[in-house]
C-alpha cells in the first residue's frame, strides 16, 4: 500500500514562487511545508519540505490538497448575527464593527450580572500556532474570566510518560530510521502522523528493521506490520506487563542498566511474577503465542524504538497504560542505544517563553478552572463542573468545535441551546458549534497570517509566515482578541498592542532564540538535545535521577496537572504501585456487550477537513465497523442501518462488516459533522466526560455499548 509517497518538487515556473511554512493542525508531525504561491496571489500545490530532516518531503494527502479547503465555496466570509431560534440556520450579515461591539457588550452584561467568571473563553488546537491559538488566554487573564483546563487530548499520555521519566521528551524521533525494531503503539500513524511511517519504513528498507504495531483493530498502519497485535480496547498495560515478565523470565532484562537507572527493579520483578502471558492473554484477547513472540522480539533486539501514541491512553486507565509501555524500554535497557528507547512527545525540549503572550502576570489563581471535556456538564449547570460557582452565560470560541468533538454531546447541545447563554464563534466554516452561536465571525487560515509553531512529535521550532492575503472580510484570531481588549478596556495591559510578527519576535527573544528574520531565512530551528540527555544517559528527570517503576500518582509534576483548586481527578486511589492492568475501564457487560472506540479517519483531522469534497468522498459516510460474526448474530447485513447506544444515548449509522475488527469491538472512524449522521447526532453522544485518573482527560475510546439492527 502506498502510504507515504513524497511529491517531487518540480522546477518552479517564473509565475510561481515557493513559500515556506508549517502545518498548523493538531498532529505531532508539525510538517515543514513548501507552498506554491501563484502570480494571482492564490496557492497551488502543497508539498513536504525535502530539506527538513523529519518531514523528509512527505505530508498527508489532506494537507497536500489544502487549496481545496482554502478556496472552499462554503468558507465563512462575513460576520453573521443569528436571526431566528438557536440552531435554526437563519442569519443576518453584519459589519465587523457591529459584531465586535455586540460581543463586547454581551461580555460586559454577563460580568455585571454574574461576575467575571460568567464569561468563559474556550479554544483548543484548530491551529497549533502560538500567537493565533494562545492570545485568547491574555484576554482571559486580563479580564479575570473563567479559566480553561485543556484536558481533552493529551493529559493521560503526558501524565503517564512523565510519571516514568520526569519529563516530556525522549530519543530523537529521526532515530526511528536507524533502529532495528520500531514498536508503533496505540497510534494509527498512517492516518494521523505519516512521518512516523516514513522513518520506520526507511529503517526496514535500509536495516531490515521489524515493524510492530499494537492497536485495537486492523488499521492501515497495522497492515504495514511485521508483527501485528490487535488487542481489546483498554488492555495495553496488561500486554506491557507480560512483555516485562518475559524479559525477567528469559534473561532479556538488563539488570545492570536498571540497577543504575531505575528506582525499584527488584520490586517490579516480584510484582510481575504473576503477570504471565497466560494472564495477559485472558485480558487482551491476544494469543499466548502472540505475546511470547512480542516479548522475544523486543527482548532480543537491543535497538528497539517504542513510538508511543495518544490513542491507547484515551481510556480510563490511559495514564497507567502509558507508564507501563514506557517501562518496557527501561526493563530492556533500550534507552542506551541509538535507535532505542521510548518516545512519546518532545514538548519539553523547546523551552519557549509564552508568559507575555498568554498574560501570565495577570493570572489570578482564585479564578475557577473549568474542564473543557466537561463543557456539557458546565453549560447545563452541574455544580461540580462549575466548581460550585455561578453559571457560564457568555463564551468566545476559537479553534475548536465542541458541539461536535466534546463528549456527552447531548448535554453539550442542550447547554448551547440555552436562551440565557451568549456564544460568539470565530470560525472558518459553519461548524456544528457555529450553527448554535449568536454571532459568527470569519477566521483566516494558516497561510493568511503569521505564526510560530513548536513540534511535539519531532524536534523543531518552525516559522509560519503569512504567504497570501486573506479575503478582505476575514480576520485573524489575534485581531479579534486585540479588538475585544480595546472595547473591554484592557488594551493597555501587558502583551496587548503587538502585531503577530512583533509578538513572535518577543516570544523568541524572551526564549533566547534567534528572531523572526532568522527564522524567515532558515525556516526552522532544531532543538533536539544531545544524545546523553535525550536518552537519559545523564539520568532521568526525577530528583533521584532514576526512571520510576513506582509512580507517585498523587504528587508528580506533569505538563498539564490540574491546579490545586481542582485537585486529583478520577478514581486515583485505585492506581497501582507498579505497572499493572487497572479495572476502571467500561468493561462490556450483559446489557452492553460491545466495546466502542471512536478512532481517527485518514482524511479528517478531528473535525477539520470534514467539509472538503475530496475528504468526504474518500471517507464515504458515517459507518460502524462490525465483525461479520457479530453482525450475523443480529441479522445485520453490510450497509444496514444500525443503532448503537448506552446510558448516554443512541446513534444511528450504517454498518460496515469487516474482519478488521475483532468480535465484541466496534469502531466508528472519524469525526463526521453531526448533521452527516442519520438523526443529526454524532458519535460523541456515546462518549463520557468522566475524568481519567489522576490528572484528567477524556476517555473517548472507552465505551461499553449495545448494538441492534434498526427497525425502521
Automatic annotation (TrEMBL):
InterPro entries: Asp_de-COase-like_dom_sf (IPR009010), MoPterin_dinucl-bd_dom (IPR006657), Mopterin_OxRdtase (IPR006656), Mopterin_OxRdtase_4Fe-4S_dom (IPR006963), Mopterin_OxRdtase_prok_CS (IPR006655), Prok_Mopterin_Oxidored (IPR050612), YoaE_C (IPR037920). Pfam families: Molybdop_Fe4S4 (PF04879), Molybdopterin (PF00384), Molydop_binding (PF01568). The keyword Cytoplasm does not apply. It comes from the Bacteria. One of its GO terms (molecular function) is molybdopterin cofactor binding. Gene3D superfamilies: 2.40.40.20, 3.40.50.740, ADC-like domains, Dimethylsulfoxide Reductase, domain 2, Formate dehydrogenase/DMSO reductase. Keywords: Iron, Iron-sulfur, Metal-binding, Molybdenum, Oxidoreductase. Its cofactor is Mo-bis(molybdopterin guanine dinucleotide). Residues 16-74 form the 4Fe-4S Mo/W bis-MGD-type domain. Belongs to the prokaryotic molybdopterin-containing oxidoreductase family. This is Anaerobic selenocysteine-containing dehydrogenase. It comes from Rhizobium metallidurans. Transmembrane segments: none annotated. The keyword Protein biosynthesis does not apply. The lineage of its organism: Bacteria, Pseudomonadati, Pseudomonadota, Alphaproteobacteria, Hyphomicrobiales.
